[in-house]
Write a structure and sequence with these properties.
The chain is α/β, with parallel strands linked by helices. Strands 4-3-1-2-5 form a five-stranded mixed β-sheet, covered by helices on one side. Strand 3 and strand 4 form a beta hairpin. Helix 1 runs parallel beside helix 3, helix 1 crosses helix 9 and helix 4 packs parallel to helix 6. The longest helix has 36 residues. The protein binds glutathione (GSH). Glutathione binds next to loops. Glutathione (GSH) binds next to loops.
Length: 217
């Protein structure tokens, strides 16, 4: 039985899971958790993920939520890929950036996504909260400066090879235009993201996330 992924494909948190599965050629089936219809609160889904958020992975009787943990689970299916390095220090470096993602990067970007994408497209609210966006700007620039400097002289976040750190941090930039993420001054971030977006699996996943998944929860 293949891995089951419960996702709302327009979300970068779903994208990061799907792109890793595609990059590693891991077979999976998807179940749509339509956030626009509140399907994350359906009792069957809430039994899998008590947070009532997506994504969630189910592999037989093993259930895992939190996108960055799911990425590690997928990478461990193909250790030879190097997406999660085998050596302890390399692995901790990747894990560090995945933690940093949730603590600083994802949380800053999420403000822009909520105000400029989710509100108008899913909630029918056209006017963004200016105070929230101002807080988002401050958090975004503080984090973006760190990421931009880290990428200087490095093709990827942790060095010369693609790892989960790149996927965790790069997925959100798919929404740069729609969310108005202010990446304009960060040349290293833009150069690095262009490389990610050129990956065949990235392209395929972008195509796939524009189509509805086969089944529903
Ligand atoms: N830290 C979690 C965040 C998951 C999350 O917040 N997912 C959002 C969509 S991007 C969600 O399902 N929201 C539904 C809701 O808040 O009702 C992860 O990275 O997996």
């Amino acid at each position: 039985m293949s891995i089951e992924l419960y996702v709302f494909p327009p979300s970068p948190r779903a994208f990061k899971v799907l792109v890793v599965a595609n990059h590693l050629k891991i077979p999976y089936t998807t179940h749509l958790v339509d956030l626009g219809k509140g399907e994350q609160r359906a009792s069957g889904y809430a039994a899998l993920n008590p947070n009532m958020r997506m994504p969630t992975l189910k592999d037989g009787d093993f259930v895992l939520w939190e996108a960055n943990a799911i990425l590690q689970y997928l990478a461990l299916q193909r250790p030879e890929s190097g997406l999660l390095p085998a050596d302890e220090r390399g692995r901790l470096d990747v894990t560090r950036w995945q933690f940093w993602d949730l603590a600083h990067w994802d949380s800053a970007c999420a403000i822009f996504i909520f105000e400029n994408v989710v509100k108008p497209r899913l909630l029918g609210i056209d006017e963004p909260d200016r105070a929230a966006l101002a807080r988002g700007e401050e958090s975004f620039h503080r984090a973006a400066k760190v990421l931009n400097e880290q990428l200087r002289g490095r093709p990827y976040v942790t060095g010369t090879t693609l790892t989960l750190a790149d996927v965790s941090l790069g997925a959100v930039l798919n929404l740069t235009d729609g969310a108005h993420l202010p990446v304009g001054d960060y040349a290293e971030i833009r150069r690095w993201y262009a490389g990610l977006a050129a990956l065949p699996a990235w392209q395929r996943t972008l195509d796939e996330t524009r189509r509805p998944p086969a089944t529903r929860v």
